[in-house]
Write a structure and sequence with these properties.
The complex is a heterodimer of chains A (248) and B (309). By secondary structure, chain A is α/β, with parallel strands linked by helices. Chain A contains 6 helices and 13 strands. Chain A has one domain (2-245): Rossmann fold (3-Layer(aba) Sandwich), CATH 3.40.50.620. In chain A, a hairpin with a 2-residue loop joins strand 8 and strand 9. In chain A, helix 2 (68-78) packs across helix 5 (188-194) and helix 3 (94-108) packs across helix 4. The longest helix of chain A is centred in the N-terminal third of the chain and has 15 residues, at 37-51. Chain A is globular and about 65 Å long. The termini of chain A are far apart. With 309 residues, chain B is of the alpha/beta class. Chain B folds into 2 domains: 2-165, Rossmann fold; 195-308, Rossmann fold. Chain B has helices spanning 17-26, 41-48, 69-79, 92-105, 206-220, 228-232, 263-269, 298-308; strands spanning 2-6, 9-10, 13-14, 30-37, 53-60, 85-89, 110-113, 115-116, 121-126, 131-137, 142-146, 162-165, 175-182, 195-199, 223-226, 253-257, 274-279, 292-295. In chain B, helix 3 crosses helix 4 and helix 5 (206-220) runs parallel beside helix 8. Chain B is elongated, with a radius of gyration of 21 Å. The N and C termini of chain B lie far apart (51 Å). Classes of the chains: A alpha/beta (248), B alpha/beta (309). At the A-B interface, helix 3, helix 4, strand 7, strand 8 and strand 9 of A face helix 3, helix 4, strand 7, strand 9 and strand 10 of B. Strand 9 of chain A pairs antiparallel with strand 13 (175-182) of chain B. Flavin-adenine dinucleotide sits between chains B (200-202, 227-230, 241-246, 258-260, 262, 264-265, 268, 279-281, 284, 297-299) and A (13, 37-38, 120). Chain A: Belongs to the ETF beta-subunit/FixA family.
């Protein structure tokens, strides 16, 4: 079975995003960028399935600027076998991403597509579910545990009330949650090896997908700022404050 | 505009998250609701009583139990022939279903809206809530998920909706429910709790978490939350996680104990009315958003606090 893993290049999770003064967006100039953390978990899961003999090839895909090549190289260094960059400098929405991924799935015929549950820049949490709809496949979102069986996969999902397990027939979509695994770091020799792994470059046009946006963003602003309050000298002072608030 | 609101229910009870979605939908136009599952007559009656409810569509079929999106999305997509907007709460269920519906209708979903700015304009948080985007859709139909903390709950009583059965779209045959582990607790649910006591990595173990956090929460009648670090370390289950990728909460009072205040955590609680932080590091970022802070070892300060309340 082949596994397709879409990975997105996003602002590093340790960086505090700054809104541009003109309200046009978030300032990404000279900001550290990394693989979306949920996508690292997806790559790791695919590698573990391969190591367990459940998969034989892992293809990483990224849709974005040339710089997304770095993200794909990271996936290759972790253990993906080959990569596809769909190059575009346009801002591209989850629906368009899902359409491009659908075209790649039609070509590659994977048994499983593992995506992150959410990209930490747009916080959309949509792409996997959309891809599942376009393909007419089952979806195991917010995965905590993935067990690939014969012709099916069981996914234990992190839901508001706890955990829910569903069984999907293969091929299927999985989106990863934080507790699925702990992604490995690429070793130096693997980083070197990744440089010679195959990486194809395509464009959205190659897949005849219309990527024109459906949403226009007219303004991006900072949320209301909270001011730091008071440091209280001791617990008694806090008890007094809580009493004032009427909670104690 | 005619909206179709997803009614979230469990064990025969309508979930509160539905009520905030109704408020958001009412800003767009007529509120119709969808109740799906088997034996949902009681839920449908409850939905009809929500203030502002119009038609309540009821799809009674076991295929819709557990809200499997493979079965539910085709039902919603079919009903969308007669509606202009699908509105779901941004719960794990809403997030699972709505994008699938959006793709079936070939529209871009607008996730996690904070406000309705116009017929097709909304604000929504991006970058862990560090930025708020105003977006306008050019699609002919809207698919929206609603952040519960951003909208008042519609009154659960006073409405007079009419109940109407709709045909089932059946079982898509792609998925099945296996099991669930849902915690039963007398504690208020995180997303509707008035007070939340939250613990972080500093608690050190599930025993200590229970020993230190629970008595304080009991005293205050509070819900219990946690940071990702505390969940990852196994001190508490996953559904306790507050943050960008966990639950979004905005109680009257949020007490963060041994939590540093990473942006991902702040994203889930910084709209709380009053924030109290207890941390032994005076430079912890949580103090930058806290109304009241105590710089102390939590293992001394929290039991003392519990004792004095
Ligand atoms: C993709 C992604 C998504 C994420 N989503 C979330 C999310 O939804 N929610 C979330 O919370 N995090 C999330 N995180 C993790 C986040 O970045 C932080 O790692 C996490 O919030 C830290 O948890 P913490 O504050 O408990 O631990 P730490 O950062 O380790 O802080 C522990 C704090 O306890 C204090 N302390 C230690 N001992 C004591 C003591 N005896 N008494 C008093 N204070 C003490 C320390 O001074 C410190 O400030 C996410 C991260 C990523 C990459
Ligand atoms: N431009 C992209 N390139 C590759 N994968 C993407 C892209 N955008 C989204 N994804 C995938 O979809 C997931 C969810 O993203 P989103 O729906 O934007 O929150 C991510 O974790 C990725 O796996």
């Amino acid at each position: 079975m082949k596994i397709l893993v879409p990975v997105k290049r996003v602002i590093d999770y340790n960086v505090k995003p700054r809104v541009k003064a003109d309200g046009s967006g978030v300032d990404l100039a000279n900001v550290k960028m990394s693989m979306n953390p949920f996508d690292e978990i997806s790559v790791e899961e695919a590698i573990r399935l391969k190591e367990a003999g459940k998969a034989d090839e892992i293809v990483a895909v990224s849709i974005g600027p040339v710089k997304a090549t770095e993200t794909l190289r990271t996936a290759l260094a972790m253990g993906a076998d080959r990569a596809i960059l769909v190059e575009t400098d346009d801002e591209i929405e989850p629906l368009a991403v899902a359409k491009i991924l659908k075209a790649i799935v039609d070509e590659e015929q994977p048994g499983l597509v593992i995506l992150g549950k959410q990209a930490i820049d747009d916080d959309s949490n949509q792409t996997g579910q959309m891809l599942a709809a376009l393909l007419g496949w089952g979806q195991g979102t917010f995965a905590n545990t993935v067990e690939v069986g014969d012709g099916s996969v069981e996914v234990k999902r992190e839901v508001d009330g706890g955990l829910q397990t569903v069984k999907l027939s293969l091929p299927a979509i999985v989106t990863t949650d934080l507790r699925l695994n702990e992604p490995r770091y690429a070793s130096l020799p693997n980083i070197m090896k990744a440089k010679s792994k195959p990486l194809d470059t395509k464009t959205p046009g190659d897949y005849s997908v219309d990527i024109s946006p459906r949403l226009t963003t007219s303004n991006v602003s900072e949320p209301p700022k909270r001011e730091a309050g008071e440091i209280l000298p001791d617990v008694d002072a806090l008890v007094a404050k809580l009493k004032e608030m009427g909670v104690a | 505009m005619k909206t179709l609101v997803w009614v979230e229910h469990e064990g025969g009870d309508l979930k509160d998250a539905t009520l905030s979605a109704v408020t958001a939908a009412a800003k767009l136009g007529e509120v119709h609701l969808l109740v799906a599952g088997s034996d949902v007559g009681g839920v449908a009656e409850a939905a009809a009583k929500i203030a502002g409810a119009g038609k309540v569509h009821v799809a009674d079929d076991a295929a819709y139990d557990h809200a499997l999106p493979e079965n539910v999305a085709p039902l919603v997509a079919a009903l969308m022939a007669d509606h202009d907007a699908f509105v779901a709460p941004a719960t794990t269920t809403g997030k699972n279903i709505a994008p699938r519906v959006a793709a079936m209708l070939d529209v871009m979903q607008i996730s996690d809206i904070l406000s309705v700015e116009g017929e097709k304009s909304f604000t929504r948080p991006i970058y862990a809530g560090n930025a708020i985007a105003t977006v306008t859709s050019s699609d002919s139909k809207l698919v929206i998920t609603v952040r519960g903390t951003a909208f008042e709950k519609a009154a659960a009583e006073g409405g007079s909706g009419t109940i109407e059965a709709v045909g089932s779209t059946g079982d898509a045959g792609l998925s099945s429910f296996v099991s669930e582990e849902i915690a039963q607790s007398d504690r208020p649910e995180l997303t509707s709790a008035k007070i939340i006591v939250s613990g972080g990595r500093a608690l050190g173990s599930s025993e200590k978490f229970e020993e230190v956090i629970t008595p304080l929460a009991d005293k205050l009648g509070a819900g219990i939350g946690a940071s990702r670090a505390a969940v990852d370390a196994g001190y508490v289950p996953n559904d306790y996680q507050v943050g960008q990728t966990g639950k979004i909460v905005a109680p009257e009072l949020y007490i963060a104990i041994g939590i540093s205040g990473a942006i991902q955590h702040l994203a889930g609680m910084k709209d709380s009315k009053t924030i109290v932080a207890i941390n032994k590091d005076e430079d912890a970022p949580i103090f930058q958003v806290a109304d009241y802070g105590i710089v102390a070892d939590l293992f001394n300060a929290v039991p003392e606090l519990t004792g004095k309340l």
